[in-house]
Amino acid sequence: GSYDIIEEEVSFDAPPVTKTWEDYRISITPESATNLIGDTETFTVLLEKTTNGTTWSAASGETIDLSITSPAYFVTIGGSPASGQSGSGTTDTNGELAVVVKSDSPTVATLNATFDELLSNQTLFSRSDTSTKTWEDYRLLVDQTSATNLIGDSHTFTYTLQIDTGEGWTN
């Protein structure tokens, strides 16, 4: 048989294609804090992104998942009332999310903030950070609550200041 060879030039009028690589970082401030039991503490979660690895900008409108260890609990997340040991909130225009926590008993609690992003190739991208919060209680003990002495005689009372950070009372 015979074949006819046809030469034809084909051109495509397609827009240019670009690829952008992004990275995120998350941080919580303060990294640690200590208060008396019953006092609240405000933490700020900051989410930033970069497309060049050196210049970071606020990542606004992103969801941050939060957890705190018991017996501490959330009071507000992003200015909205919250409760329990888990929740989520959305970063503001500055890439920040304010989180208020509290504990009514002595403890050392860990606050965890996580940002998850499902990439177009169905890979889960995750960044997280933690902060430690200590709630303390104090008590003052007296060795004896009353005594009787002769007028003019001295008497010594011994006071002991104790602290409880969730591990029990210590001097």
Task: Please give a handful of descriptors for the protein shown.
171 residues; six-stranded antiparallel β-sheet; seven-stranded mixed β-sheet; mainly beta
Please sum up the structure shown.
The protein is mostly beta strands and 171 residues long.
Describe the secondary structure blueprint for this structure.
Elements: E1 23-29, E2 32-36, E3 40-50, E4 57-58, E5 63-68, E6 73-77, E7 80-81, E8 86-90, E9 96-102, E10 107-118, E11 124-142, E12 159-164, E13 169-170
Parallel strand pairs: 2-11
Antiparallel strand pairs: 1-3, 3-4, 3-9, 5-8, 5-10, 6-7, 6-9, 10-11, 11-12, 12-13
Q: Please, could you describe this protein's structure?
A:
With 171 residues, the chain is an all-beta fold. The chain is 0% helix and 52% strand. The protein has no helices and 13 strands. The strands form two sheets. Strands 2, 5, 8, 10, 11, 12 and 13 form a seven-stranded mixed β-sheet that branches. Strand 3 and strand 4 (57-58) form a beta hairpin. It is rod-shaped, with a radius of gyration of 30 Å.
